[in-house]
Amino acid sequence: MLVFILGLYMTIVKGNLIKKVIGLNLAQTGVYTFFILTAKVNESTAPVYIGDEVRYANPLPQVLILTAIVVGISLTAFALGLVIRIYQAYGTIEESELSRLVQANREAQPSTLTPSSSGGEG
Questions:
Q1: What predicted TM-score, i.e. pTM, was given to this entire model?
Q2: In a domain, 8, yes or no
């Protein structure tokens, strides 16, 4: 739970985009750990038929977490690709500087959205 809170804190408070991605990864790891720990069945064995009446562990949570890890890695790669592209376009990965640059960009360019004279009706 502490790992999740730390990741959430990093995602919200930090201004650096790479630190935000790391925070998201920490939050994901916290969720995975919590899910696996709550899915554990005490005094259980692998779900292989032995013949006796035994408590079996459910393999579904582990399968779901493996799938979530793969999706998380893909999203992390995509997010880091976006951070690289943002750095190439703006020269910074600090959130406050990006906001200032985007706002200055909007003010410098005239609005391209103008009402059409035809009204759009046919």
A1: 0.75
A2: yes
